[in-house]
Specification:
single chain; 403 residues; alpha/beta; Rossmann fold; 2 domains; nine-stranded mixed beta sheet; disordered N terminus; hydrolase
Amino acid sequence: MRRFVLCLLAVIATALPAWSEPVKGSLLIAGGDFKLENPGWSRLVDLAGGKGAMILVLPTASGDPVGSGGRIVEHLRSLGANAMLLPLAEKGFDRPPAAIVSDPLWVDRARHAGGFFLVGGDQSRYTAALLRADGSDTPLLAAIRAAHAAGAVIGGSSAGAAIMSATMIKDAPETLDLLDAGPIAGRTLGPGLGFIGPDWFVDQHFLARGRFARTLVAMDAAGYTRGLGVDENTAIIIRKRQEAEVVGASGVVLLDTRTATRRPGWPFAQTGTVVSLLRDGDRLDLVSGTVTPGPTRAAAPIAPSSPGFAPDPELPSILATGDILAPWQFGRLMAQVLESRQGQATGLAFDAADPARRPAFRMLLSRRSDSQGWAGNGVTALNLSLDVEPVRMADPLFSPAQP
């Protein structure tokens, strides 16, 4: 299965643009539910050129392209941008996508735009509209890439974030099934648009929907060793594919499997993945991996390996959860592991209704000697270790207590 997926992605990669070309533009990758009051919107306008900058809004993925795209256009105009709705969608407009992606007027507008925003929905609609059948760029996508290379910003939320990497999750099964049997050939993974370059995999709604496990499986199948998991109402702004900054209410998880050990075959088993949680204002050097804390946290370091480290007295002595895939549970555990006495937490992922039907999974989060972080409005946690191993749950899982 994994060999098939890697061969498929190798074919996809031959149709993508040369990664050696320099890129002057920025990316704004939002994890979904990107609220209008989020400061990332004004940052998008600034990155596009400020007041009067032309930003094209692509509503392609949306089930209501006119309505959802129109609301974003109006919001960007309220922030001073010259925003326009690009009529590229399967419904809601007079002309089909095939006509728009070759229209000289829209191609020229894209080439000279200061920014783009890709609306959420079904990410497969973006690739269906913007890529030719052979995987090469349509004229409109080529113009977007040219504008981005010259300095334009490309923003996207939810589906608009998923397409940022060269490979994307397009239709994933339930996470337990994915951990059990791996990606479904021709369905789970597909080509993205690759704006972030070849080195990073991107997933969205990350903490809110407990997606870290599915991302690890996708990274393994597609040959990635570094991933970005962007949570809801949060964005990561990336400049020239080198410098990144987190903006928003939740966080961004970094996943690094370069030193991890993957046991071959399925169910999924992997030890030594390095995970970090970045918060609003934190900065990341994508080349060196160096993290600089946001100004609200810089004065409150957390250094578990230092002699003066004081664990959080309000945390329990043993950290554990029966559902590590629950909303926001993974992020909470990361912060707690960093500040706890033992520096370790155990989480389970299983089907409580029928525990014997498929494998369960035990996740172990642990501090490392180089783990550190900063406190503030949300904890930044760097360099924790994550192990994933399949286990068998007892069946029945429980029995009535005796009186």
